[in-house]
Amino acid sequence: MLGSLTLILLCQLIGEVITRLTKLPVPGPVIGMVLLFCGLVFCPGRMPSEIEKAGGFLLRYLALLFVPAGVGVITHLDLLLKSWAPIAGVIVIGTLATIAVTGLVMKFLNRRGAPAREESLQ
């Protein structure tokens, strides 16, 4: 599991380096996650079980990783109180947009999958 965790963190480090060198407006861990995803997709075999175990371990304790971010938000509480209306607006609009896009994607995917299901029933 230590090797798999090292691989995951190495992908994150490479993502950070790419972000810093290219000054992309994308967080380094996101680029690292894409790199890991591409590596797993183009890997000829299945997902190694060790990486799956390490990923499951990280997901199990993911809530703990948000504690430092939450503490950081609380330290800037005065700034949040000054800008509460735009922040609330972005949260509401973002949530509604996410619901709408999710609904449209599900509708599209259900239409694409419907003929295959009908053929399998016949």
TrEMBL record:
It is a multi-pass membrane protein. InterPro entries: LrgA/CidA. One of its GO terms (cellular component) is plasma membrane. Its main location: membrane. The chain crosses the membrane at residues 25-45, 57-77, 83-105. Keywords: Cell membrane, Membrane, Transmembrane, Transmembrane helix. The keyword Translocase does not apply. It is found in: Cell membrane. This is CidA/LrgA family protein. The keyword Aminoacyl-tRNA synthetase does not apply.
